[in-house]
């Protein structure tokens, strides 16, 4: 299922570039990427329908029982079934929503964190500032672990800036497209007809000198921090990693929180050393993965490293 989900994403990428009539013909003939997409979708559907039936069965049994619900069985799918109500939504609706949850959280977070850890590992001064901020703002818990409550995490301004800078340079979703419902004039003066698809590159926009300045290719978290020490508000149409306007990602805040928690947990406990000689480059896909992955050596960080 993991492999099928990745192959489906790769196939969907080509729909952005091929004429609609061509990929629809390939789908009808069951050839090429469209054949692979159909096969992958069947594998993912089989897994999801099995999970949905299983969750609905357990949910029905728990509704007829006075036994308290086991919290270890918690899942987003359970929440969805509870909120919608079995019988009010068919399995197809639950499957479609489950695919959205998978697509939103499965690859984008891991992609963003991979590029973040690579950038931090290649910028020791940034790592030092993050560790200093963690030491000052997060109280220690048992061992070398930190309190990762949402309120505590929100005080990590420099870490927030570093993650934002990583997302600017390496947005997990590197391309997007919009389609015009009717003819319109863009602010740039370009006229577009109805049903025109506009493809734009988030990756390129994050590196455009006219948008971000002469140092646009450099990893500088400080560009996100004001003189007062707070995060500078960047309009969504400029920092477009989470889309913009009414199409802005609903999971933006929880994505930042999740990435901060993972970053703090790893950086405060381990040194992440890059394996020498590896080639770091983006993979051509609908999600901006590293082509060859990120090879590292991890060593336990001592208490002295955090000033404890």
Kindly list the characteristics that best describe this protein.
12 helices, two-stranded antiparallel ribbon, 6 strands, 308 residues, mainly alpha
**For the report, how would you describe the main beta sheet?**
2 strands, antiparallel
Q: What is the strand tally?
A: 6
Q: What structural category characterises the helix and strand content?
A: mainly alpha
Average pLDDT confidence is 86
Assembly state:
single chain
Q: Give Rg in angstroms.
A: 22 Å
List the total number of helices.
12
Uncertain ranges? none
What would you call the shape?
Answer: globular
Helix content: 40-55%
Strand order of the largest sheet: 1-4
Beta-strand content estimate: 5-15%
Distance between the first and last residues' Cα: 44 Å
Order of helices and strands: HHHHHHHHHEEEEHHHEE
In a nutshell, what does this entry contain?
The chain is mostly helical and 308 residues long.
Fold and architecture overview:
The protein has 308 residues and is mostly helical. It is 48% helix and 8% strand. The protein contains twelve helices and six strands. It has a two-stranded antiparallel sheet with strand order 1-4. A two-stranded antiparallel ribbon has the order 2-3. A two-stranded antiparallel sheet has the order 5-6.
Layout of strands and helices, then pairs:
Layout: H1 2-14, H2 20-29, H3 32-63, H4 76-84, H5 91-105, H6 108-121, H7 124-137, H8 150-153, H9 157-169, E1 175-179, E2 184-185, E3 191-192, E4 197-201, H10 202-205, H11 209-212, H12 252-267, E5 270-274, E6 296-300
Antiparallel strand pairs: 1-4, 2-3, 5-6
């Amino acid at each position: 299922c993991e492999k099928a989900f990745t192959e489906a994403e790769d196939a969907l990428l080509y729909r952005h570039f091929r004429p609609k009539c061509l990929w629809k013909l390939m789908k009808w003939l069951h050839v090429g990427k469209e054949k692979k997409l159909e096969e992958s979708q069947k594998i993912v559907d089989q897994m999801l329908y099995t999970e949905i039936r299983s969750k609905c069965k357990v949910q029905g049994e728990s509704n007829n029982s006075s036994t308290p619900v086991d919290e270890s069985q918690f899942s987003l799918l359970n929440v969805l079934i509870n909120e919608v109500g079995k019988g009010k939504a068919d399995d197809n609706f639950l499957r479609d929503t489950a695919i959205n949850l998978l697509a939103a959280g499965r690859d984008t977070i891991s992609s963003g964190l991979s590029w973040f850890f690579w950038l931090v590992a290649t910028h020791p001064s940034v790592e030092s500032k993050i560790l200093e901020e963690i030491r000052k703002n997060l109280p220690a818990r048992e061992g070398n672990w930190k309190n990762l409550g949402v309120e505590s995490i929100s005080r990590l301004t420099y870490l927030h800036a570093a993650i934002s800078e990583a997302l600017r340079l390496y947005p997990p979703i590197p391309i997007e497209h919009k389609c015009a419902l009717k003819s319109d004039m863009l602010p740039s003066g370009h006229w577009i007809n109805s049903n025109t698809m506009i493809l734009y590159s988030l990756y390129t926009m994050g590196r455009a000198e006219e948008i971000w300045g002469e140092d646009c290719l450099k990893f500088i978290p400080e560009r996100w921090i004001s003189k007062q020490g707070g995060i500078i508000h960047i309009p969504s149409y400029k920092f477009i990693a989470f889309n913009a306007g009414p199409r802005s990602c609903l999971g933006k805040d929880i994505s930042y929180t999740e990435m901060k928690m993972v970053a703090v947990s790893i950086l405060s406990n381990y040194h992440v050393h890059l394996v020498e000689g590896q080639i770091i480059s983006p993979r051509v896909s609908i999600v901006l993965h590293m082509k060859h992955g990120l090879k590292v050596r991890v060593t336990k960080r001592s208490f002295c490293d955090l000033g404890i």
